[in-house]
Specification:
single chain; about 130 residues; mainly alpha; Topoisomerase II, domain 5; three-stranded antiparallel sheet; 4 helices
């Protein structure tokens, strides 16, 4: 036997949305306590590893890397993926550079990085460990 409960649609929706918002923040927005990386960072590094973009290999266009990440692992906007990759290549944004970038990846003065079609990247040596 099932029981029916009388509840307000407003209460029900606010409760459901709150649980969804909390799960989204925990799973996507907050960096993992183990390594400090968000899922998008982990997906970029894994994709670069799959493309064999190790420290000693030649650089590859960032647009190619972003397309691979978006197509296989992270079906969200390409600009969000590229911004995350740029951040991993900036020495002033992270403690250790995880991506070795070639080209204009922005500056401490607030200059934005060049478009992904003009920049190239590969994994930094620390990312291979």
């Amino acid at each position: 036997m099932s029981k029916l409960f009388k509840t307000s649609i407003d209460d029900l929706l606010s409760e459901r949305y709150l649980s969804y918002a909390i799960s989204t923040i925990i799973s996507r927005s907050l960096p993992d306590v183990r390594d400090g990386l968000k899922p998008v960072h982990r997906r970029i590094i894994y994709s670069m590893y799959q493309l064999k973009l190790m420290h000693g290999s030649p650089y590859k266009k960032c647009a190619r890397i972003v397309g691979d990440v978006m197509g296989k692992y992270h079906p969200h906007g390409d600009q969000a993926i590229y911004d995350s990759m740029v951040r991993m290549a900036q020495s002033f944004s992270m403690r250790l550079e995880l991506v070795d970038g070639q080209g204009n990846f922005g500056s401490l003065d607030g200059d934005r990085a060049a478009a992904m079609r003009y920049t190239e990247a590969r994994l930094a040596k620390i990312s291979e460990k």
